[in-house]
Design goal:
Elements (H helix, E strand, L loop, with lengths): L6 H17 L4 E17 L2 E19 L2 E7 L5 H13 L32 H16 L4 E20 L4 E17 L6 E9 L8 H14 L9 E8 L1 H14 L2 H6 L19 E3 L22 E5 L2 E2 L6 H6 L8 E4 L2 E4 L4 E3 L6 H8 L2 E8 L9 E12 L2 E14 H6 L1 E3 L9 E2 L3 E9 L2
Parallel strand pairs: 7-14, 13-18
Antiparallel strand pairs: 1-2, 1-4, 2-3, 4-5, 5-6, 7-19, 8-9, 8-13, 9-10, 11-12, 14-15, 15-16, 16-19, 17-19
Helix pairs in contact: 1-2, 3-4
Length: 448
């Protein structure tokens, strides 16, 4: 992959856009270029099914006239002056937004660290093809695997170039490589599907494709001949790390300042109060070297720092961008991200910090319960906290995984679930949202 050698060119174009917007009548402006390069290969049953390659540099200009704001986007090759004049004309007739603004100059990053987010390793289509085939071959070699849903390998880069009318100019790039495979076990109506994958910033740190394939095969074979279990209340449910990460995402959504400002979060009135069991903490750190979601500055040019969002169970922070912070009477904490032409708050490297016991010890401590490996549906109400999801996994009997289970529903309220959560010690921080295996007591399980 090409490196950051032409970021200076993109910064120059962004700065020109801002100058033209100011000349056209804007009081303030910022310009962003989101850069993306990717290539991927997909295979199925030993044959290449698809090869894709894409490149894009997407420009966005945001202008402010008093309390009015407008944004426009364009692809490379556009007329700079025409784009600037169009944005200013739109802003003049836009409704006032009392909170929209650039980040305060005092909050802008004056310098920022090299987080080592970019790996310049060149991956050819042939390398990607061989990796995908190796993953699929290893998965199909596992006894009991009967078919393949396909395997893939990819490599790419992405980054941000940002310039503002009050003096910020910066850029960063990050790389991403991945291997994945999905396979089937069983026949007819008894077929089961499962998968495995790995994704890293540095190519050399990826798991071996054959190992990914073996894990996928072993996972799916264990799911053959699932049973149903009786409906029950006060069931202890253990979340596999895969589904645990999604659950932590619900916590992130509930402490997002935008949701709090819109009054769509069930935690909107809980700042400074206990929302997790005592002893539990959730951290967010944008400055981890080689972190999967690290960034030296946010989408407004503000550097973030490590925050303990929930400390010893007590809610300490919202995720905030500048405008969301103003709406809540607070300062940004450097969590603004660009989504098209808009800026909204989001997490970076988010982690539910681990506990002290192993997953095996946690399972043994349960006695009888349900170990979830996959969740189905979107039955989560972030306004009330009501939680109801279809689930598959394994029944726990006498402290051990006894047999596969499917076609059940688990339900509770997130407020109660947060207070009954017990984490294990097996966190894997290679994901932007990281979580260990954890148990939640007192859930309702709807089965037979």
């Amino acid at each position: 992959m090409s490196s950051e050698i032409d970021s200076s060119t993109l910064l120059s174009r962004a700065s020109q856009l801002i100058d033209l917007a100011r000349k056209a009548g804007a009081d303030a402006a910022d310009a962003v270029v989101v850069r993306s390069r990717s290539q991927s290969v997909s295979v199925r049953l030993g044959k290449v099914e698809g090869t894709e390659s894409s490149e894009s540099d997407d420009f966005s200009l945001r202008v402010f006239i008093g309390k009015r704001v407008a944004s426009v986007s364009a692809n490379p090759g556009f007329d700079l002056q025409a784009l600037a004049e169009r944005a200013v004309a739109m802003a003049k007739v836009s409704p006032e937004d009392p909170f929209a603004c650039l980040a305060d100059e005092a909050n802008l990053a004056k310098s920022y660290p090299d987080l080592q987010l970019f790996d310049a390793t060149e991956v050819s289509s042939e390398m990607l093809r061989e990796a995908a085939l190796a993953a699929e071959t290893a998965a199909l070699a596992v006894k009991g695997v009967t078919n393949s849903s396909g395997a893939g390998a990819s490599g790419g880069m992405g980054g941000l170039v940002l310039a503002t009318s009050h003096g910020f100019a910066g850029s960063y790039m990050g790389s991403r490589f991945g291997h994945s495979v999905s396979v089937i076990a069983g026949e007819g109506t008894g077929m089961e599907r499962d998968y495995d994958f790995d994704s890293r910033l540095y190519y050399a740190e990826l798991d071996d494709p054959a190992e990914i394939g073996r894990r996928a095969g072993q996972r799916v074979v264990k799911r053959i001949n699932p049973r149903q279990v009786p409906t029950g209340k006060n069931v202890t449910v253990i979340f596999d790390p895969r589904v645990a990460r999604g659950f932590v995402g619900h916590i992130a959504g509930a402490i997002n300042g935008a949701a709090v400002a819109r009054k769509t979060s069930f935690l909107r009135d809980r700042m400074g109060q206990q929302v997790l069991k005592s002893g539990l903490s959730i951290t967010d750190d944008p400055l981890i070297v080689r972190g999967p979601a690290s960034r030296p500055f946010d989408g407004e040019g503000v550097s973030g720092e490590r925050l303990v969002m929930i400390e010893d169970g007590v809610l300490k922070h919202w995720f905030l961008s500048t405008s969301t912070g103003r709406e809540l009477g607070l300062q940004t904490n450097g969590r603004g991200v660009r989504g098209g032409t808009a800026v909204s708050p989001s997490s970076t490297n988010l982690a539910l910090e681990p506990g002290d016991i192993s997953p095996e010890e946690l399972i043994r401590s349960v006695g009888n319960g349900f170990y979830v490996t996959e969740l189905i549906g979107h039955g989560v109400n972030m306004l009330t906290g009501e939680y109801s999801r279809g689930a598959t996994g394994f029944w726990i009997e006498n402290g051990e995984l006894a047999f596969p289970v499917s076609e059940v529903t688990i339900a509770s309220n997130l407020k109660d679930m947060f207070m009954r959560l017990t984490p294990a010690n097996d966190i894997d921080r290679k994901f932007g949202v990281a979580a260990p295996t954890f148990a939640i007591e007192g859930m309702t399980l709807a089965g037979q």
